[in-house]
Amino acid sequence: MSCQRMVTLVLLVFLLLNIVEDEAASFPFSCPTLSGVCRKLCLPTEMFFGPLGCGKGFLCCVSHF
Length: 65
Hints:
The chain has 65 residues and is α+β, with helices and mostly antiparallel strands. It has 1 helix and 3 strands, in the order αβββ. The protein has a 3-stranded antiparallel sheet with strand order 1-3-2, with no helix packed on it. It holds the Pfam family Defensin_beta_2.
């Protein structure tokens, strides 16, 4: 019985790791698709959309849709 539990646990961990990897890679939006610019700080006239596809420490700033 403990062998079956171990196999089930290993399969669940494997599936969870695959889901987390695929989720990050398949996110459809990035800063360029929103016509945004990666900056350290957004201008007052721009909307802040987080670090969508920008490098570490940069924010996605979109001036219009």
